[in-house]
Amino acid sequence: MTEQKSEVSRVQELVYELKIEEVMVRDVITVTPETTLREFKELLRTKRISGTPVVQGERLVGIISLEDLIKALEDGEMDALVGAKMTPKVEVLHADEPVVHAVNRMSRSGFGRFPVVNRAGQLVGILTRGEIIRGLLRRLEVSYRDEEIHRYRSSHIFEDIISDRTSLVLRYHVQPRDFSIGGAASSRIKRAIERLGGNPTLARRVGVAAYEAEINLVIHSDHGGEMVVEIQPDQLHILVADDGPGIPDVEQAMRPGFSTAPDWIREMGFGAGMGLLNIKNCADEMKLQSVLGEGTWLEMWFRIPAAGADGSKQQAASSKQPVAEK
To answer: Phi/psi at 287 (nearest 5 deg)?
Structure first.
């Protein structure tokens, strides 16, 4: 009996694809450190909000809430300034991060909202659970007319081509430490599969696995890396290679939660230690090789179901044709 791969829904896929800046609220109500608590109290009343970011110029310097106001009322300090009562250390999200990082942060912290800043520390928005949901719904409502045209044209690429082995090879270079474009290659890979007529379930599985592999390149490689995709009529193969430090213990790296990402990467919401496990869960077959000081090679295979199949592991294992080992 063949193993069934977990299906990836369109909503789960969008959580990886969308950037926080695409769903956040940009028009943010703020106060300054010089705002009095009386003025802050009136702002909460008129705007019907429960707190605001505190900015100095455009830079986020703190946050103040209804709880802070209540404590000041109890202590008779309504003439105090916001700067004296605010919380100066604020957990933030970055505008160029994918929405999946916001979902993970909200789940871990229990917070329902986060200020959003750019890489210069300037406040650019606010993100709440409600805005994530609304952003996902907006994207789901986008017209598919133009995409359907692209899909029809591309899906005929293998037709009327006679050869012993027909394949399409796509190649992408991934820059190191550039989180602003992290996920761009995986999005293009998924779109190519869709336009070639690939099953939506297959495209989503490939998209999630490719994203996790791409982010690993961004985090761990010293000079970036390459993602090479070979698409054949019956299978898809992805090779991800980098010249990073290598993985000391591949078996340990496959354990949930294990990560060698530095603290500053973790603080950005990356390096949770689930990437390789997510790849394994999405791919029909996965091979990971690593040599200390030389780099890491990750290969993934996905069987392309015959027309009418549901995208899960329906075909026989003999349909796979792994490339030669590194």
So the answer is: -135, 130
- With beta carbons less than 8 A apart as the criterion, state whether 50 and 67 touch: no
Burial class (CB in 10 A: 0-12, 13-18, 19+), 291: exposed
Q: Which of 216, 278, 299, 303 is catalytic?
A: 216
What's the CA gap between 166 and 169, in Å, rounded? 10
Q: Which two tokens stand for residue 17?
A: 């694809």
β-partners of residue 81 are: 36
Query: What pLDDT digit, counting tens, does each position of 218-274 carry?
Result: 888 888 899 999 988 889 999 999 988 888 888 888 887 766 665 655 555 555 557
* Closest-CA residue to 106 (of 128, 87, 89): 128
State the residue for tokens 């390149």.
Answer: 217
Please provide the size of the chain in residues.
Answer: 326
Structure tokens at 51: 């707190």
Output DSSP code: residue 27: S
212 catalytic residue (yes or no): yes
266 catalytically annotated: yes
Domains and CATH numbers, the chain: 20-137 (3.10.580.10), 144-319 (3.30.565.10)
Q: Which of 105, 151, 188, 266 is catalytic?
A: 266
Joined together, the tokens standing for residue 82 give 């916001």
Strand spans (E) along the chain: 51-56, 59-65, 93-94, 113-117, 123-128, 168-174, 225-231, 235-242, 285-291, 295-303
Q: Is 278 part of the annotated catalytic residue set? A: no
β-bridge pairing 93-94 and 113-117: parallel
**Catalytic residue selected from 212, 214, 299, 303:** 212
- Tens digits of per-residue pLDDT, 169-228? 899 999 887 877 878 899 889 888 887 777 888 988 999 999 999 988 888 888 889 999
